[in-house]
Amino acid sequence: MTVPLATAPPAWANWLGDGGLIPFAGLALALWWPALGQQGAISHALASYGATIASFLGAIHWGLGMRDHTSAGAGPYLWGVTPSLLAWLALLLPPTWGLLGLAVLLGLCLLVDERRYPRYQLQAWLPLRRRLTLVASLACLAGAAGLLR
Description:
The protein is an all-alpha fold. The protein is 74% helix and 0% strand. The protein is globular and about 55 Å long. The model has no long low-confidence stretch (mean pLDDT 93).
């Protein structure tokens, strides 16, 4: 199967990606206001959203493996389920540790994408991935720091 070279993401992909950062930023910020009295619910919402995004990032690789199934091997499928499993484990940890784990996991997802996207001619998407991962990971770290105050 011949896959055309990917160009830069369309504007709507950038808008949707940026919009997806709103829950990260808003929930992380909310964890710095203990007067809200909802730290448990807010940290759970942030961790759950981070876990959902990590699962989404893994699923991309499953889909890429399906698209290129004749030469993909097991790698994309194995990685495709790994973020979901690690994110689920992060949700089982105490909130601060879970958010720290998700920040690391999101970074790990980016490292894998940095290595794998060029094989699928998707390197034009990496600047968007870097920006989104930076903000999402920082939000998880900020949320964890807000819980420690």
